[in-house]
Amino acid sequence: MIEKDFIPLAYQQEVNEAKITWKSPSNIALVKYWGKKANQIPANPSISFTLSACATTTTVEFEKKQNPSTDFDFDFFFEGRPKEDFKPKITAFFERTKAYLPFLESYYLKISSSNSFPHSSGIASSASGMAALALCLVDFERRLNPEISEAHFNRKASFLARLGSGSACRSIEGSLVQWGAHSGTKESSDLYGIRYTGEVHPNFNRFHDTILLVDKGQKQVSSTVGHGLMHDHPFSEQRFAQAHHNLSSLQSILASGDLKAFIQLVESEALTLHAMMMTSLPYFVLMKPNTLEIINRIWAFRQTSDTHLCFTLDAGANVHVLYPENEKKQVYRFIQDELLPFCEHGQHICDRIGFGAKKITTTLHT
Ligand code: DP6
What we know:
four-stranded antiparallel sheet; 14 strands; globular; Ribosomal Protein S5, domain 2; alpha+beta
Protein backbone atom coordinates (compact mmCIF):
# COMPACT_ATOMS: atom_id res chain seq x y z
CA MET A 1 0.00 0.00 0.00
CA ILE A 2 1.09 3.57 -0.56
CA GLU A 3 0.22 6.76 1.34
CA LYS A 4 -2.52 7.72 -1.11
CA ASP A 5 -4.44 4.51 -0.28
CA PHE A 6 -5.18 5.98 3.14
CA ILE A 7 -7.12 8.93 1.71
CA PRO A 8 -10.77 7.94 2.16
CA LEU A 9 -13.47 7.95 -0.50
CA ALA A 10 -16.19 10.60 -0.13
CA TYR A 11 -18.05 10.06 3.14
CA GLN A 12 -21.44 8.39 2.79
CA GLN A 13 -23.01 8.90 6.21
CA GLU A 14 -23.84 11.94 8.31
CA VAL A 15 -22.91 11.89 11.98
CA ASN A 16 -23.51 14.94 14.16
CA GLU A 17 -22.17 13.70 17.46
CA ALA A 18 -20.26 10.70 18.69
CA LYS A 19 -18.26 9.56 21.69
CA ILE A 20 -15.65 6.85 21.19
CA THR A 21 -13.22 5.26 23.66
CA TRP A 22 -10.19 3.05 22.97
CA LYS A 23 -7.52 1.61 25.23
CA SER A 24 -4.08 1.08 23.68
CA PRO A 25 -1.11 -0.67 25.22
CA SER A 26 2.48 0.41 25.32
CA ASN A 27 5.10 -1.74 23.55
CA ILE A 28 8.73 -2.63 24.08
CA ALA A 29 10.99 -3.01 21.05
CA LEU A 30 13.27 -6.03 20.77
CA VAL A 31 14.93 -4.76 17.58
CA LYS A 32 14.99 -0.98 17.98
CA TYR A 33 13.83 1.87 15.78
CA TRP A 34 16.47 4.58 16.08
CA GLY A 35 16.84 6.98 13.17
CA LYS A 36 14.20 8.19 10.75
CA LYS A 37 13.71 9.83 7.37
CA ALA A 38 11.18 12.54 6.46
CA ASN A 39 7.49 11.91 7.29
CA GLN A 40 8.19 9.49 10.12
CA ILE A 41 9.68 6.83 7.84
CA PRO A 42 11.95 4.59 9.91
CA ALA A 43 15.61 4.23 8.92
CA ASN A 44 15.42 0.52 9.79
CA PRO A 45 12.78 -2.09 10.61
CA SER A 46 11.88 -2.90 14.22
CA ILE A 47 9.83 -5.46 16.15
CA SER A 48 8.20 -5.22 19.57
CA PHE A 49 6.29 -7.11 22.21
CA THR A 50 2.92 -5.50 22.79
CA LEU A 51 2.44 -4.94 26.53
CA SER A 52 -0.67 -5.34 28.61
CA ALA A 53 -0.65 -3.41 31.91
CA CYS A 54 0.88 -0.16 30.61
CA ALA A 55 -1.83 1.46 28.52
CA THR A 56 -3.56 4.73 27.66
CA THR A 57 -7.33 5.08 27.55
CA THR A 58 -8.61 7.88 25.35
CA THR A 59 -12.14 9.14 24.76
CA VAL A 60 -12.88 11.48 21.88
CA GLU A 61 -16.20 13.32 21.76
CA PHE A 62 -16.99 14.61 18.27
CA GLU A 63 -19.47 17.41 17.61
CA LYS A 64 -20.17 18.72 14.13
CA LYS A 65 -19.28 22.42 13.87
CA GLN A 66 -22.10 24.80 12.90
CA ASN A 67 -19.71 26.89 10.86
CA PRO A 68 -16.99 24.74 9.34
CA SER A 69 -13.55 26.39 9.42
CA THR A 70 -10.08 25.33 8.41
CA ASP A 71 -8.85 25.38 12.02
CA PHE A 72 -8.54 22.40 14.28
CA ASP A 73 -10.96 22.98 17.11
CA PHE A 74 -10.26 20.77 20.11
CA ASP A 75 -9.60 20.58 23.84
CA PHE A 76 -7.32 18.10 25.51
CA PHE A 77 -7.78 16.77 29.04
CA PHE A 78 -5.26 14.54 30.78
CA GLU A 79 -6.45 12.62 33.87
CA GLY A 80 -9.46 14.93 34.05
CA ARG A 81 -7.61 18.25 33.79
CA PRO A 82 -7.07 20.52 30.77
CA LYS A 83 -3.51 20.12 29.53
CA GLU A 84 -2.60 23.06 27.33
CA ASP A 85 1.07 22.12 26.91
CA PHE A 86 0.11 18.95 25.06
CA LYS A 87 -1.96 20.78 22.47
CA PRO A 88 0.89 21.76 20.08
CA LYS A 89 1.81 18.09 19.72
CA ILE A 90 -1.79 17.21 18.85
CA THR A 91 -2.07 20.14 16.44
CA ALA A 92 1.10 18.91 14.69
CA PHE A 93 -0.44 15.43 14.55
CA PHE A 94 -3.65 16.82 13.00
CA GLU A 95 -1.61 18.78 10.44
CA ARG A 96 0.17 15.59 9.40
CA THR A 97 -2.98 13.50 9.27
CA LYS A 98 -5.65 15.86 7.90
CA ALA A 99 -5.18 14.69 4.30
CA TYR A 100 -6.14 11.19 5.47
CA LEU A 101 -8.92 12.34 7.83
CA PRO A 102 -10.78 15.07 5.91
CA PHE A 103 -13.53 15.22 8.57
CA LEU A 104 -11.09 16.70 11.13
CA GLU A 105 -11.76 20.34 10.30
CA SER A 106 -15.54 19.91 10.36
CA TYR A 107 -15.79 18.75 13.98
CA TYR A 108 -15.00 20.01 17.46
CA LEU A 109 -13.14 17.31 19.39
CA LYS A 110 -12.97 16.90 23.14
CA ILE A 111 -10.08 14.51 23.83
CA SER A 112 -9.75 12.99 27.31
CA SER A 113 -6.87 10.70 28.08
CA SER A 114 -5.47 8.81 31.07
CA ASN A 115 -2.65 6.35 31.63
CA SER A 116 -2.66 3.15 33.65
CA PHE A 117 0.86 3.94 34.86
CA PRO A 118 1.91 6.89 37.00
CA HIS A 119 2.36 10.05 34.97
CA SER A 120 5.81 10.79 36.34
CA SER A 121 7.10 7.23 35.99
CA GLY A 122 9.50 8.09 33.19
CA ILE A 123 7.54 5.74 30.95
CA ALA A 124 6.78 7.41 27.66
CA SER A 125 3.07 7.47 26.92
CA SER A 126 3.46 8.74 23.37
CA ALA A 127 3.20 5.25 21.85
CA SER A 128 0.05 4.19 23.72
CA GLY A 129 -1.39 7.72 23.65
CA MET A 130 -1.01 8.31 19.92
CA ALA A 131 -2.27 4.80 19.17
CA ALA A 132 -5.42 5.29 21.27
CA LEU A 133 -6.11 8.67 19.66
CA ALA A 134 -5.56 7.29 16.14
CA LEU A 135 -7.98 4.43 16.87
CA CYS A 136 -10.70 6.83 18.06
CA LEU A 137 -10.28 8.88 14.87
CA VAL A 138 -10.37 5.91 12.49
CA ASP A 139 -13.29 4.45 14.39
CA PHE A 140 -15.19 7.70 13.92
CA GLU A 141 -14.33 7.67 10.22
CA ARG A 142 -15.72 4.14 10.02
CA ARG A 143 -19.10 5.64 11.02
CA LEU A 144 -18.86 7.99 8.04
CA ASN A 145 -17.69 5.23 5.67
CA PRO A 146 -19.00 1.97 7.11
CA GLU A 147 -17.67 -0.45 4.50
CA ILE A 148 -14.03 -0.14 5.56
CA SER A 149 -12.59 -3.63 6.23
CA GLU A 150 -11.09 -4.73 9.55
CA ALA A 151 -7.65 -5.11 7.95
CA HIS A 152 -7.79 -1.61 6.47
CA PHE A 153 -9.04 -0.24 9.80
CA ASN A 154 -6.02 -1.62 11.67
CA ARG A 155 -3.57 -0.53 9.00
CA LYS A 156 -4.95 2.95 8.86
CA ALA A 157 -4.89 3.26 12.67
CA SER A 158 -1.25 2.16 12.66
CA PHE A 159 -0.43 4.46 9.72
CA LEU A 160 -1.92 7.47 11.53
CA ALA A 161 -0.38 6.56 14.91
CA ARG A 162 3.03 6.47 13.20
CA LEU A 163 2.56 10.05 12.08
CA GLY A 164 2.10 10.97 15.76
CA SER A 165 5.02 8.95 17.12
CA GLY A 166 6.89 6.23 15.24
CA SER A 167 6.72 3.51 17.89
CA ALA A 168 2.96 4.15 18.32
CA CYS A 169 2.29 2.27 15.08
CA ARG A 170 3.29 -0.90 16.97
CA SER A 171 0.60 -0.34 19.65
CA ILE A 172 -2.51 -1.29 17.66
CA GLU A 173 -2.43 -5.07 17.40
CA GLY A 174 -0.70 -7.73 19.49
CA SER A 175 1.30 -9.56 20.52
CA LEU A 176 4.40 -9.11 18.36
CA VAL A 177 4.39 -6.28 15.85
CA GLN A 178 6.85 -5.55 13.09
CA TRP A 179 7.28 -2.15 11.45
CA GLY A 180 9.48 -1.17 8.54
CA ALA A 181 10.23 -2.69 5.16
CA HIS A 182 12.25 -5.90 5.57
CA SER A 183 13.23 -8.22 2.76
CA GLY A 184 12.48 -11.35 4.82
CA THR A 185 8.92 -10.31 5.71
CA LYS A 186 6.12 -10.26 3.17
CA GLU A 187 3.68 -7.38 3.69
CA SER A 188 6.16 -5.42 5.82
CA SER A 189 5.93 -1.68 5.31
CA ASP A 190 7.57 1.56 6.38
CA LEU A 191 4.10 3.10 6.58
CA TYR A 192 2.51 0.95 9.33
CA GLY A 193 3.12 -1.92 11.71
CA ILE A 194 1.87 -5.43 10.99
CA ARG A 195 1.02 -8.22 13.38
CA TYR A 196 3.88 -10.72 13.30
CA THR A 197 2.57 -13.83 11.59
CA GLY A 198 5.77 -15.93 11.63
CA GLU A 199 6.04 -18.99 13.83
CA VAL A 200 6.43 -18.25 17.55
CA HIS A 201 7.62 -20.98 19.94
CA PRO A 202 5.57 -21.49 23.15
CA ASN A 203 8.64 -20.37 25.17
CA PHE A 204 7.54 -16.83 24.32
CA ASN A 205 3.91 -17.28 25.34
CA ARG A 206 2.93 -15.09 28.27
CA PHE A 207 6.46 -13.63 28.42
CA HIS A 208 6.96 -11.20 31.31
CA ASP A 209 8.30 -7.65 31.31
CA THR A 210 8.94 -6.18 34.73
CA ILE A 211 9.71 -2.51 34.25
CA LEU A 212 12.14 -1.11 36.81
CA LEU A 213 11.69 2.61 37.36
CA VAL A 214 15.25 3.75 37.86
CA ASP A 215 14.82 7.41 37.09
CA LYS A 216 11.53 9.21 36.86
CA GLY A 217 12.98 12.59 35.92
CA GLN A 218 12.59 14.37 32.62
CA LYS A 219 14.95 12.92 29.98
CA GLN A 220 17.82 15.22 28.93
CA VAL A 221 17.33 14.40 25.25
CA SER A 222 14.00 13.47 23.67
CA SER A 223 13.66 10.48 21.33
CA THR A 224 12.83 12.82 18.47
CA VAL A 225 16.12 14.70 18.92
CA GLY A 226 17.99 11.39 19.33
CA HIS A 227 16.54 10.06 16.06
CA GLY A 228 17.72 13.25 14.34
CA LEU A 229 21.27 12.67 15.52
CA MET A 230 21.40 9.48 13.46
CA HIS A 231 21.76 11.71 10.38
CA ASP A 232 25.51 12.13 9.82
CA HIS A 233 26.20 9.61 12.56
CA PRO A 234 29.53 7.83 11.96
CA PHE A 235 28.01 4.37 12.51
CA SER A 236 24.49 4.86 11.13
CA GLU A 237 24.83 2.76 7.97
CA GLN A 238 26.31 -0.19 9.89
CA ARG A 239 23.60 0.17 12.53
CA PHE A 240 20.76 0.19 10.00
CA ALA A 241 22.23 -2.88 8.25
CA GLN A 242 22.62 -4.61 11.63
CA ALA A 243 18.95 -4.02 12.48
CA HIS A 244 17.87 -5.74 9.22
CA HIS A 245 20.16 -8.65 10.02
CA ASN A 246 19.03 -8.86 13.67
CA LEU A 247 15.41 -8.89 12.61
CA SER A 248 16.03 -11.88 10.33
CA SER A 249 17.91 -13.65 13.15
CA LEU A 250 15.14 -12.88 15.63
CA GLN A 251 12.55 -14.42 13.31
CA SER A 252 14.46 -17.75 13.45
CA ILE A 253 14.91 -17.43 17.22
CA LEU A 254 11.18 -16.81 17.73
CA ALA A 255 10.43 -19.96 15.74
CA SER A 256 13.01 -22.19 17.44
CA GLY A 257 12.44 -20.92 20.98
CA ASP A 258 16.22 -20.58 21.53
CA LEU A 259 16.20 -18.45 24.69
CA LYS A 260 20.01 -18.08 24.86
CA ALA A 261 20.11 -16.63 21.37
CA PHE A 262 17.11 -14.41 22.24
CA ILE A 263 18.94 -13.01 25.28
CA GLN A 264 22.06 -12.24 23.28
CA LEU A 265 20.21 -10.48 20.50
CA VAL A 266 17.87 -8.46 22.73
CA GLU A 267 20.59 -7.26 25.10
CA SER A 268 22.89 -6.41 22.21
CA GLU A 269 20.10 -4.35 20.60
CA ALA A 270 19.55 -2.42 23.85
CA LEU A 271 23.24 -1.67 24.31
CA THR A 272 23.64 -0.75 20.64
CA LEU A 273 20.81 1.77 20.97
CA HIS A 274 22.62 3.44 23.86
CA ALA A 275 25.97 3.14 22.07
CA MET A 276 24.44 5.15 19.22
CA MET A 277 23.51 7.86 21.72
CA MET A 278 26.99 7.90 23.20
CA THR A 279 28.61 8.20 19.76
CA SER A 280 26.25 10.89 18.36
CA LEU A 281 27.39 14.48 18.05
CA PRO A 282 26.46 15.94 20.43
CA TYR A 283 26.81 12.74 22.48
CA PHE A 284 24.63 11.94 25.44
CA VAL A 285 24.06 9.23 28.03
CA LEU A 286 20.59 8.28 29.23
CA MET A 287 21.61 5.36 31.44
CA LYS A 288 22.14 6.10 35.14
CA PRO A 289 24.53 4.36 37.55
CA ASN A 290 21.64 2.21 38.79
CA THR A 291 20.85 1.12 35.23
CA LEU A 292 24.35 -0.40 35.01
CA GLU A 293 24.10 -1.82 38.51
CA ILE A 294 20.91 -3.64 37.51
CA ILE A 295 22.43 -4.92 34.26
CA ASN A 296 25.45 -6.32 36.11
CA ARG A 297 23.25 -8.03 38.66
CA ILE A 298 21.11 -9.58 35.94
CA TRP A 299 24.26 -11.00 34.31
CA ALA A 300 25.58 -12.35 37.63
CA PHE A 301 22.24 -13.96 38.51
CA ARG A 302 21.97 -15.57 35.09
CA GLN A 303 25.39 -17.16 35.55
CA THR A 304 24.53 -18.74 38.86
CA SER A 305 20.93 -19.77 38.17
CA ASP A 306 19.28 -21.77 35.48
CA THR A 307 17.12 -18.86 34.34
CA HIS A 308 16.68 -16.95 31.09
CA LEU A 309 15.95 -13.42 32.15
CA CYS A 310 17.40 -10.60 30.09
CA PHE A 311 17.11 -6.84 29.94
CA THR A 312 16.19 -4.30 27.35
CA LEU A 313 16.15 -0.51 27.48
CA ASP A 314 14.22 2.17 25.70
CA ALA A 315 15.45 5.74 25.34
CA GLY A 316 15.85 6.30 29.08
CA ALA A 317 17.32 4.92 32.29
CA ASN A 318 14.53 2.46 33.13
CA VAL A 319 15.20 -1.25 32.68
CA HIS A 320 12.75 -3.76 31.20
CA VAL A 321 13.43 -7.24 32.60
CA LEU A 322 12.10 -9.90 30.24
CA TYR A 323 11.61 -13.55 31.30
CA PRO A 324 9.59 -16.66 30.46
CA GLU A 325 6.38 -17.59 32.26
CA ASN A 326 7.76 -20.82 33.77
CA GLU A 327 10.58 -18.92 35.54
CA LYS A 328 8.42 -16.16 36.94
CA LYS A 329 8.61 -17.12 40.64
CA GLN A 330 12.38 -17.45 40.79
CA VAL A 331 13.05 -14.37 38.68
CA TYR A 332 10.53 -12.14 40.45
CA ARG A 333 12.00 -13.10 43.83
CA PHE A 334 15.44 -12.10 42.51
CA ILE A 335 14.01 -8.81 41.22
CA GLN A 336 12.47 -8.05 44.60
CA ASP A 337 15.56 -8.96 46.59
CA GLU A 338 18.29 -7.60 44.39
CA LEU A 339 16.98 -5.14 41.82
CA LEU A 340 14.24 -3.11 43.49
CA PRO A 341 16.74 -1.38 45.82
CA PHE A 342 18.09 0.33 42.67
CA CYS A 343 14.68 1.71 41.63
CA GLU A 344 13.32 5.06 42.82
CA HIS A 345 11.33 4.14 45.95
CA GLY A 346 11.40 0.50 44.79
CA GLN A 347 8.91 1.38 42.04
CA HIS A 348 8.29 -1.09 39.25
CA ILE A 349 5.48 -2.28 36.99
CA CYS A 350 4.71 -5.95 36.46
CA ASP A 351 3.74 -6.22 32.83
CA ARG A 352 3.65 -8.98 30.27
CA ILE A 353 3.04 -9.59 26.61
CA GLY A 354 -0.46 -8.43 25.61
CA PHE A 355 -2.91 -8.68 22.78
CA GLY A 356 -3.33 -5.20 21.39
CA ALA A 357 -5.73 -2.29 21.64
CA LYS A 358 -9.35 -2.67 22.77
CA LYS A 359 -12.42 -0.70 21.97
CA ILE A 360 -14.23 0.37 25.11
CA THR A 361 -17.39 2.16 23.90
CA THR A 362 -19.06 4.09 21.09
CA THR A 363 -22.16 6.28 21.23
CA LEU A 364 -23.53 7.96 18.15
CA HIS A 365 -26.11 10.62 17.30
CA THR A 366 -26.87 11.03 13.64
C1 DP6 B 1 14.21 3.85 21.69
O1 DP6 B 1 8.65 6.45 18.69
O2 DP6 B 1 9.37 7.73 20.73
O3 DP6 B 1 11.89 3.47 22.07
O4 DP6 B 1 8.90 8.79 16.29
O5 DP6 B 1 10.14 10.66 17.34
O6 DP6 B 1 8.01 9.84 18.38
P1 DP6 B 1 9.25 9.49 17.58
O7 DP6 B 1 10.11 8.49 18.46
P2 DP6 B 1 9.68 7.27 19.36
O8 DP6 B 1 11.07 6.46 19.40
C2 DP6 B 1 11.17 5.27 20.11
C3 DP6 B 1 12.56 4.82 20.16
C4 DP6 B 1 12.85 3.62 21.03
C5 DP6 B 1 12.97 2.35 20.21
C6 DP6 B 1 11.69 1.72 19.73
O9 DP6 B 1 10.64 1.83 20.39
O10 DP6 B 1 11.77 1.02 18.69
